[in-house]
Design goal:
Distance between the termini: 58 Å
Oligomer: single chain
Number of strands: 5
Largest sheet: 5 strands, mixed
Order of helices and strands: EEHEHEEH
Strand content: 25-35%
Radius of gyration: 17 Å
Number of helices: 3
Helix content: 25-40%
């Protein structure tokens, strides 16, 4: 099935002075992959907490594709077959100095 016929529902935090960067990244990634996006910004702390209580999510963003919960941004990357940096992995390479 082509991504063009698939719909992603994106729940992300969009509050004054606080926009979730991972939600923006998820939106950009989905758009780049050709998904139709139903972007549902949660604009208050009460809305965020109600969403988490109702849907069982621990954090935002939360992505659903064709009615199936994918999870957060890293889960979306895994779903799309992209690499995900694991929390325990090194993010740098130590340098060796030789004199």
């Amino acid at each position: 099935m082509s991504n063009l016929s698939r719909t992603a529902v994106l729940y992300r935090m969009v509050m004054p002075g606080q926009i979730c960067p991972w939600g923006l990244r998820a939106r950009y990634l989905l758009k780049g992959r050709g998904y139709a996006i139903d972007d549902r910004g949660l604009t208050t702390r009460d809305a965020v907490e109600a969403f988490k209580a109702e849907r069982g999510g621990k954090s935002l963003p939360q992505i659903f594709i064709d009615g199936v919960r994918i999870g957060g941004y890293d889960d979306l990357r895994r779903y799309l077959g992209l690499k995900v940096r694991e929390p325990e992995s090194l993010t740098y390479t130590p340098m060796r100095w030789s004199y």
